[in-house]
Amino acid sequence: MKQKVVVLTGAGISAESGLATFRDANGLWEGHDVMEVASPEGWQKNPKLVLQFYNERRKSALAVEPNAAHKALVDLEQKYEVSIITQNVDDLHERAGSTNILHLHGKLFESRSTKDERLVYPMKGWELKLGDLCEKGSQLRPNIVWFGEAVPLIEKAAEETMHADYLLIIGTSLQVYPAAGLLAYAPHDTPIYLIDPNTPAVSHRRNFTIIQEKATVGVPALVKKLLGE
């Protein structure tokens, strides 16, 4: 039976493909207060602005490609069972070729009903407009987990982490909860590798290795090591 590698990825891995990271130090995202474009209240107040904002995010995502870090994670599947738990809403892991991806914060290229959240639709292009309706006649919204909304897949992510033989943490500040709390679910003896140029404050567990590199450098090197090359 293959050993299990659980990979937690954040904005840093997508940033190297050219996607803007979620927000800068003053809480703005592409010039917008995050609560204006990423909260139920923002949606109620100005759905047109929210739709425009995510249309721009989709355009940006379509213009970039998976990078060396995304591609190296695919190579791990030669030897391991790999589960990627990502805080990113883009589809770069999918486009690189990874086969088992859990999107904690939703998917940029999906829309969902505002009346029935079980009604989720794949999006072919980048544009979602006011007047685009679900089959029950309600406005479609981005299938994104906004601030103040529950993270429906967090329990499944915790369960995956509990069975990790290796845990890789890539390009995340470990500041966004509940995702940051996943670290606590890793078995006590599981080796944990953190790859990030800016070392976040993390627990001093044993078997904890910090690789202070950007993802496109650190991930391929670590994958080679785990594959025994």
TrEMBL record:
Residues 1-229 form the Deacetylase sirtuin-type domain. It is found in: Cytoplasm. Its main location: cytoplasm. Substrate binds at residues 54, 57. It catalyses: N(6)-acetyl-L-lysyl-[protein] + NAD(+) + H2O = 2''-O-acetyl-ADP-D-ribose + nicotinamide + L-lysyl-[protein]; N(6)-succinyl-L-lysyl-[protein] + NAD(+) + H2O = 2''-O-succinyl-ADP-D-ribose + nicotinamide + L-lysyl-[protein]. This is NAD-dependent protein deacylase. It comes from Rufibacter glacialis. NAD-dependent lysine deacetylase and desuccinylase that specifically removes acetyl and succinyl groups on target proteins. Modulates the activities of several proteins which are inactive in their acylated form. 2 residues (Tyr-54 and Arg-57) present in a large hydrophobic pocket are probably involved in substrate specificity. They are important for desuccinylation activity, but dispensable for deacetylation activity. NAD(+) binds at residues 10-29, 87-90, 171-173, 215. It is an enzyme of class 2 (transferase).
